[in-house]
Amino acid sequence: MNLPPLKEAFIIKEPQDEPAGIYIHIPFCLSKCSYCDFFSITDLSFKGEFLNALSREIILSPGKHLKFDSLYIGGGTPSILPPESIAEIIDKTAAAFNLDSNAEITMEANPATLNRENLKQFKMAGINRLTLGVQSFDCKNLKFLGRLHSGKEGAYAVEIARKCDFENINIDLIYGIPGQTEKMWLKDLQQGVNLEPTHLSCYMLTFEPGTEMGKRLQKKDFRPMPESRICNLMNLTTSFVASKGYTRYEISNYALGTSCSDYRSRHNRKYWSSVPYIGLGPSAHSFIEPVRYKNISSVKEYIKSLKREELPVEGKELLNKNQRMTEEILLGLRETNGFNLLNFNQKFKTDFLKKFHDPIKTLEKLKFIQTNKNRCKLTNQGILYHNSIAAMLTEFE
User: Fold this and answer.
1) What is the pLDDT of residue 259?
2) Residue 52 in 3-state DSSP?
3) Considering the domain boundaries, does residue 64 fall inside one?
4) What CA–CA distance (Å, rounded) separates 368 from 383?
């Protein structure tokens, strides 16, 4: 079946319920972290050509008629670029797209690339939400992860970002690192909340095939943490940060304040809610239900494509009804508030509670899930088994 070109796909005929999001992938890193499977390169000689190509993609990209209220600059390491380049990217994006004047504009940053001067300039460029890849304050853990900064540098980056008037700051932390004890993880969490970020993202370490760490695991260079201990650390995270005023709103994400806090990531919530988004840059994805598009995962080919005035799309996927329902359930259950059953039933012309009556009753007895006529959500205990539960609720006939 021929899928529509990206430009045609992003012509939404129905009224736009929620503003869409824009993601821009900056593919450069100073070095490759051993656990990371996101597309990136360490050859910085392509920066100039890449920025020219990105400018062309911004102009050629579809979706100019849509409303957007979030711009997320990720990577890679966006903070490796000079602030004037980030400012130019933001200005060109805002000029080309219908980007709300109060849009959330996020930039990922590696503490090793930050200083007082460039942070001031990133703020002036328009960044109003900073997400810092601290990962740990423990130097042994940082060495295992292949990070370039020390624990002190991670803390310093947060401190100077605050002094440079960044109010909305997220800290990324990783648990499940081999050899990490509950005491070590609690120390990381305590150091994190002591810095008073508005948001915490606490991710479980995964060993992706093809990464340096994945290869080391295959060679049995280390033992992964047992699943039972990882579950303990996840529970520990939720209870500890809750005691410090942070509310969990997604499996790995905690915002300062109540569940309706404005510090929740506006952009990332679009991914979990099937809201349209446009991805720019190598390897970036775009989504307009029911079609997903993927850009070329090569800086060289990305540049070549845009020099030909062609969008750098290398793959398209048309999701059938069952795939769409699967994604809606899988992603919806990631949020602690779950997903709206009335919307789900209307959208897919089905009755979720009737369709999955038996597994739902089993899960409710185990106190893993809560349902009413309006919503379906996981309990804190159920979140530990998110993937298994989602699989039980996506076995379509």
Assistant:
1) 65
2) helix
3) yes
4) 8
